Amino acid sequence: TRDLLRFTSLPANPGAIKCVQVSARARKDDAGARSLRTVAKSGATEATGASNALGTRYQYLADVFATDPATGAAWTDLSRRSRNQKDSYH
Rg for the chain (alpha carbons), in Å? Predict the structure, then answer.
């Protein structure tokens, strides 16, 4: 299952954007192995975070994306406007 979240524009010119962090709080609630991988999407290009095994207790996960996956360059407010964040469950 994949959940996609879209973000609105920043309220003002942020200056330099150092990175984009995708965070999740997750657990599994059934038998078998489950994992979660965060995804940052810019345009049609996706970058994935580390694959994290899920247990039966909630855990916090975070991945930092220092560059825009579509350009390989630093994030800008324009690239952020078209960015999506995903949590990918396997």
Answer: 14
Q: Is 9 helix (H, G, I), strand (E, B) or coil?
A: coil
- Rounded Cα–Cα distance for residues 54 and 62 (Å): 13
Q: Specify whether the CB–CB gap between 7 and 79 falls below 8 A.
A: no
Mind listing the pLDDT tens digit for each residue in 8-55?
Answer: 767 777 778 888 899 999 999 999 999 999 998 888 899 999 999 999
Residue partners of 82: CB distance under 8 A and separation at least 6: 42, 43
pLDDT digits (tens, 9 = 90+) for 66-77: 999 999 999 887
In 3D, which of 84, 85, 66 has the Cα closest to residue 74? 66
